[in-house]
Automatic annotation (TrEMBL):
N6-carboxylysine sites (modified residues): 130
Pathway listed: Amino-acid biosynthesis; L-valine biosynthesis; L-valine from pyruvate: step 3/4; Amino-acid biosynthesis; L-isoleucine biosynthesis; L-isoleucine from 2-oxobutanoate: step 3/4
Chain's role: Functions in the biosynthesis of branched-chain amino acids. Catalyzes the dehydration of (2R,3R)-2,3-dihydroxy-3-methylpentanoate (2,3-dihydroxy-3-methylvalerate) into 2-oxo-3-methylpentanoate (2-oxo-3-methylvalerate) and of (2R)-2,3-dihydroxy-3-methylbutanoate (2,3-dihydroxyisovalerate) into 2-oxo-3-methylbutanoate (2-oxoisovalerate), the penultimate precursor to L-isoleucine and L-valine, respectively.
Gene: ilvD
Any one Gene Ontology molecular-function term assigned to this protein's record: dihydroxy-acid dehydratase activity
EC number: 4.2.1.9
Family of the protein in this entry: Belongs to the IlvD/Edd family.
Keyword vocabulary terms for this entry: 2Fe-2S, Amino-acid biosynthesis, Branched-chain amino acid biosynthesis, Iron, Iron-sulfur, Lyase, Magnesium, Metal-binding
Species this protein is from: Aromatoleum buckelii
The protein's name in its UniProt record: Dihydroxy-acid dehydratase
Positions in coiled-coil regions: none
Cofactors, names only: [2Fe-2S] cluster; Mg(2+)
Amino acid sequence: MTDITDNMRTYSSQVVDGIEATPARAMLRAVGFTDEDFKKPQIGIASTWANVTPCNMHIDKLAREAEKGANAAGGKAVIFNTITVSDGIANGTEGMKYSLVSREVIADSIETVAGCEGFDGLIAVGGCDKNMPGCLIGMARLNRPSIFVYGGTIRPGAGHTDIISVFEAVGRHAAGELSLVQVKQIEDTAIPGPGSCGGMYTANTMASAIEALGMSLPGSSAQDAISTDKASDCFRAGQQVLELLARDIKPRDIMTRKAFENAIRVIIALAGSTNGVLHLLAMAHAVEVKLALDDFIELGKTTPVLADLRPSGKYMMSELVAIGGIQPLMKRMLDAGLLHGDVLTVTGKTLAENLADVAEYPAGQDIIRPFDNPIKKDSHLVILHGNLSPTGAVAKITGKEGLRFAGRARVYHGEEAALAGILNGEVVAGDVIVIRYEGPKGGPGMREMLSPTSAVMGKGLGKDVALITDGRFSGGSHGFVVGHITPEAFDGGPIALVENGDAITIDAETREISLGVSDAVLAERRARWTQPKPLYTRGVLAKYAKLVSSASEGAVTDK
């Protein structure tokens, strides 16, 4: 148990101390507070539990473990909920427009509850693509001693399947490779229980980034959702937040420029999701750390891709868990001079101290490659510029797809039209599929193009077509794909001016994305272009579209 001092109750004392706080104490007694509890630091536990998705269906139990840990260490834990949505369920529908929006709602709700209730410290337990960065943004804004706990990864389905196997089965059926019965078999068995999607998709990418950032306990990012290790991780986080309170260690002490550089390098080594770029930019904005797309370029030049993980690789996160998770990888990277070892973490120790006694991976494993045999010698997260994207776009190119693609534009307004064109055979080899008006403002909400990219792979066109969009991609997307094209079409970016048959070249080595149309022709097209009317004029999507910044700035709503 931590020795409790008055300076650990900076916020709760304002809520429950003195005669003026009698009404507050009366209400808190109804939810279980005792006289002794009013003398303890209050620890808010933000739970993203919901039965809307397997990623989060178990998190209520994990939040209870964190509660036990905080109480055992001398605090008074208070669990509250925030929302979550499911990208896997909503992908390909209008509902997916709410996905990125939910990151802001989650951050706002954590800031709102903790700011109002006077919590002295925070723990957040998250397990899906947007609720993890949402939790970090909320904690960063408040800047009270905080720890993030990852809900853990799902185990593989029958036949080494996962959610991407299901999406790609739809394309394989369209290509005549799978019968409806075979598709149904994959549907029935690919998702065996709780946990986040099983490859190095966005959830596992962000969990790894947050651990590398120093905001979760060592090992938190690489544990099965249903495991004693994960339950212990939650209990220890509950205890450790009291230690952070005692030492007055806050998110802004941990989430420094050097820590963000560590996080970027780790997600590159792991072949992580392009969404990591969007979310790290937003998280840095929340703590006023300057971070830009160009930083991903510079760090990517000297950081190799080492992990053979899905979607572009072979293995799943549960298999990385079995050989030790990301800690041995980080130790290798630290020893190679790729990580800053002097940064502070939620353990109260530096990253170098945390990694000092970490064991090497077992001999014979081939999930994490050695530095002298990388999957790619530099980053797979390629930041592209050119006359098609003057302020930057983000590609995920491991090299397996090739490093250059030149083709002719096949233009679609929106994801649904593109998916239909892919499945009905309209898209053919040599096409560059252009999906526009899916940006943060234009969508609104910047939907993930998982259904179209999965259909491309399922149809066997993965090496024969490219896909570009002002929307974004699921961490499960692979192939020659470029997202986050900025300025977006709704703002009159060049992607709004592309016409069917235009030549488009994407070059990962020169980091260029170019439209083979003269400036004069583009000027003529621009003169004819008119901005479309907003699709939503009321409610959360309308508010989001009015407030959101460019994807090149993290698509934040408080800039």
